[in-house]
Amino acid sequence: MSPTDRLSLISRHFDYSNAHDVPLNTPFSIERESSRVVDDFNNKSNPFKGQQQKRDFSHSAPSLQEEAKEEKPPTENMSKQAPHPTLLIPGPIEFDDEVLNSMSHYSEAHVGPAFVAVFGETLSMLRKVLLTENPKGQPFILSGSGTLGWDQVAANLTEPGDEALVLHTGYFADSFADCFETYGVKATQLKAPIGDRPQLPEIEKALKEKKYKVITVTHTDTSTGVKSDLKPLAELVRRVSPETLIVVDGVCSVGCEEIRFDEWDLDVVLTASQKALGCPAGLSIVLASQRAMESFKARKTRPTSYFASWKNWTPIMQNYEAKKPSYFATPSPQLIHALNTSLKQILSKPMEERFETHKQQSLRIKKAIEGFGLKQLATKPENQAHGMTAIWLPEGITPPDVLPSLLKKGVIFAGGLHKEVAAKYVRFGHMGVSVTDPKRDDIDRAIQALKDSLVEVGYKAPS
Known about the structure:
Blueprint: H1 3-10, H2 35-42, H3 64-69, E1 86-87, H4 97-103, H5 113-129, E2 138-143, H6 147-157, E3 163-168, H7 171-182, E4 186-191, H8 200-209, E5 214-218, E6 220-221, E7 226-227, H9 230-240, E8 245-249, E9 268-272, E10 283-288, H10 290-297, H11 310-321, H12 333-346, H13 351-371, E11 388-392, H14 399-408, E12 411-412, E13 414-415, E14 425-429, H15 433-436, H16 442-456
Helix pairs in contact: 1-2, 4-12, 5-11, 5-12, 8-9, 14-16
Region (Disordered): 39-88
InterPro entries: Aminotrans_V_dom (IPR000192), Aminotrans_V_PyrdxlP_BS (IPR020578), PyrdxlP-dep_Trfase (IPR015424), PyrdxlP-dep_Trfase_major (IPR015421), PyrdxlP-dep_Trfase_small (IPR015422)
GO cellular component, one term: peroxisome
């Protein structure tokens, strides 16, 4: 796909028509003007030249015939992907070449022995990524987005009339609560101010007031960059309400934040493929504990979804992991191959090393942001995620002022997502290969691009 074609898909995130009174870059947005960004991209005075990233942004990708004719220098430090601006939003993220190459795997039978072996291996590797060794826990990999994980939880672990306590740190708690209500579950939200998280004493108080079937926590809320501390939360729940299932929305944390499934006694971690796991979007990934599976088996009513029903999927996943062909609904073979490749890359080093790499890069980014005189939505260090940073813009500057300038410099950030303050901040995603691959300079270029873009719109950092 040419750079222009790519921009025709993404440029709507960078311009905001004053004809609409909806916040920028939120699910409530209707349309944005795209012509100016595309024109700027095509303007020869602003090509992606002179970037330090190991890619050439100055021309479109050559055809296979042209490549064959060229005498190429060594390419071990260069991406083979088509030229494109670096995607540094909180997901999807930049993908490794090998992962994308896996997507081009030839078509094969989804019940054939070769694919069954790959799927089974992928399920087993997922256990290792989440640091669980309990064979009675159950991983699920279904075709769908991370949102399907909410449906799996609501349809399989709760029944109409049950109570769910939803810890609120941003937009995604609202959505998870809405999902529960769709299934007839009574969702109570425990909210914190923007940039903060519910505190343990108020959580304890809520748990003592009512019996909750599940408690949910968004590990990193993508709308605010707020990270919740899972270990003390889990310890509190086990002490105060041990029968309550602990459900972690880890869509923006699995693969970059520390999660110790067994040690912390968690019940469900749900995530998606396109963020820190480094695989293209399209897979809903869930790990359920032995306790969660026993609760599922003891339910009094049928699961309230057909496609998301663990009654249908559990034997399929168990058979795949045992390398036995099985069928309920057709999986996504190419995405499974890509995830398999990504998980192998992740597990090539200890998970502790991966967690620390993301942490150190995050601290470096946040120090640079502070040096610019900017603040984060998550003001307290203990609340700050390691896979993304939500940055308040200076007074009078909005995302449409900054994002197009970043794009001209070959960098893509996301606008705000929290509907109350969406027009006041931007989001910088720093996960996966952009952080872990030492040959890439994505982070350095992004920091410089942000600084330069702010200067271009008239911002002067305090001395």
